[in-house]
Protein 1
Amino acid sequence: MIKSAFNEGPRLTSSPLVKEHAFGASFLLVVLLLIGSLLYSTVSWMWDDQRLPLSKIVLQGDLHYVSANDVQFAFSRLEHVGTFMSQDVNVLQDVAESIPWVSHASIRKQWPDTVKVFLTEHKAEAIWNGNSLLNSEGLLFNGDLGQVEGERVKLYGPEGTNEEVLSVWRELEPKFEALSLSITSLVLNDRRAWQVILDNGIRLELGKESLEERIERFFALYKNLGSAAERVSYIDLRYDTGASVGWFPEQELEQENTDD
């Protein structure tokens, strides 16, 4: 009998350690699948438009001109208001800041269905060109003139000069207040000439140059006018020295006094 010169190879057997690793891997895979399924179900539920809709608005801030109805109406113009999870607060902020009188909006979502809206209003500093408003920074905003509480100075000027005109008014007004006067209107015309109308009805023509010197000249003249200032219609200070004074006719002045 001829025996094979090759030894028989080892047989493959399944050891307990291999079985244990296979079972552990399978168990881990099942756990991961369950967790993934649970997360998917949870996220799908939370992003469902029928779940957690944003249905409440809490309005905050020191507000005089903006109401909760204004905010609600602004949000209602959105094509779609999402859920607590899906709605982008930046979109809501942009919408809130489009409301007249709103200077800045801060939006925060509160679980599960509330939008907290904190608003800062523009502070109306002046009326610009008869139909717009300037805030305290000299910026135009679209507030309703009819809603303005109290009197505001009327400022006029070419497009883009709103900040300049407001700055000049702020500089001049305290000087006039020292004489118990107040500026009701300040005009910068297209030729860059300045005009002031005071609360006592006097119109000052100041021209383009030497504004401060001409204002000081008016103060010196006004102090010398005394009671005669009631008859002054305008004072033209567009001279190197001196001024031209326009007077109300005596009859017109007497009629005004009678009406009073």
Note: Helices lie at 16-47, 68-76, 89-97, 162-177, 211-225, 250-259.
Protein 2
Amino acid sequence: MRRAIALAARALGSTSPNPVVGCVLLDAQGRPAGEGWHHRAGTPHAEVNALRAAAEAGHDIRGGTAVVTLEPCNHTGRTGPCAQALIAAGVGRVVYAVADPTPDATGGAATLAAAGVDVEGGLLAAEAAAGNAAWLTSAALGRPFVLWKYAATLDGRSAAADGTSRWISSAESRADVHRLRAEADAVVVGSGTLRADDPHLAVRGPLLGEGTVTQPLRVVVDTHASVRPGARVLDDAAPTLIAVGEHADTAHLTGADVVRLPRNGTGLDITALLAELHGRGVRSVLLEGGPTLAGAFVAAGAVDRVVGYLAPALLGAGPTALGDAGVATLAKAPRLAVTDVTRLGPDLRITAVPTTATTAPEEN
């Protein structure tokens, strides 16, 4: 199962609106016979890819075992039902990690059992769910999973008093951010970040050499449509969506993909923004916005994971990493559980999740 989880992770950022899934096939003697993973929506699922690999290698998997990270699907969409493919192949046992929570695809386990296949669920469920957190959260909440990433000094400053912010974090941390981008369906920034840094937001560097990177949708939250026509996010390196207020003047953005959203207070309604992205097939969002936009997401209860890159530097002044999040007293502060601390060059990368967030199911 751990091998299947590792296979599934190869397609992070490429399968939405589908989940990432990995599958390992064993023959009747328990020997590895084939493996596969789901590459992208509309292409064969993990089980079918594993069955093809086994057939091409000349392995007989009749009476064997399929080990899958997600319950085999039970419906016909752009591809056929995996439960039926496993039955037709003569697999005798199926072990899966996480049950499929979607009403269309669920029921694969019951279909397999009715056909006489021995079925077991829940193996390494927590590990498999963690690898599929974006899709599972999206399925549960009806909005994309949001990872807020920021870089700051040890005293919590995201820029100096004069506005300079390049580079607070190290080259190693910046390379890691490109990994996060490659694993996300969309990267979101606000108009303040766009004006200050003119970021490109596309995946760059060695990851592109791997040949499997799908560039994320670049999303600019720009209430007043202040983005300049020559901004780097408007090039053709990756698709871009500009979210503006309902009455913003967008005449200068001819040819750009623009969506009008309702306002909530001083900015755009975050819930409406996430609903729009979800409707476009986005299941995971990397929030790279500045303190104002980050505060709006936190205030909306729309941050599912936080990754902070802490650099060993002190500024003592300048903007903080998080702006007003509607927290007036310590008793109302969102609490987080630290899940990982890693050294990246001179920096520390700290990963944490809200303790009250809707998460994937625990292992039985």
Note: The radius of gyration is 22 Å.
